[in-house]
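Attaching the record inline, Q. Sequence:
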Amino acid sequence: MLFYACRYRKTAAHICATCIKTLSRRASALTSNLQTVGYQRLIRFVPSRTLMSKALTSFALVAILTALLMALSLAVARHGYPFGAIGAERLDGVADAGTFIPLAAVYFFSALLMMILPIRVAGIVLTHAADAIFWTVIVLFAAIIGGLAARWAFDRSNILPTLLNWRFLFVVAVVGCHLFMNELRRNILLRSLFFVVFAAATLACLFWSFTI
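Structure, as predicted:
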């Protein structure tokens, strides 16, 4: 009887140990899969078409909202209330063309790092730095365009010189680089080439006066 009791205890202990090992292996595998999925989500580059569609939608919506607020401010100011001028001045103060030069410097520096860092670390830079700067540029540029559109609709003022400001080229540069970042990361030759380009662009945005 004692023999069977000892044997039963050993068998039960063996079964428990086996179950614990199996659960531990499954938990480790599940954790590993979750980490892999998380890293893939972290380092994946959104396809250019999807990103462009989201960018255009956000740009249009922010521009429309800014234009409506600017129109409201101008209408109030036209009726002789000083609050309208304050509102229009605040909307004009959101950003100007010169704002995009330092933003471009930070973006180009983050892009430079993405050219040389391992893919996981580059994904962190992309997610938490480059993406944020990209959307900031989109929002600020949309606010500027919306405000200019509202002013043109109210007094038909000439907004062409403001729109043709050469500093808006930095908006085009940041957006273009971000849309094609996936292709730049994939090609080793392009990655090496654009490492030099991004380094030069970063230094130029920081130190060059852009006067000829």
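Confidence is low (pLDDT under 50) at residues 1-10, 30-43. The CA atoms of residues 69 and 91 lie 8 Å apart.

More tomorrow.
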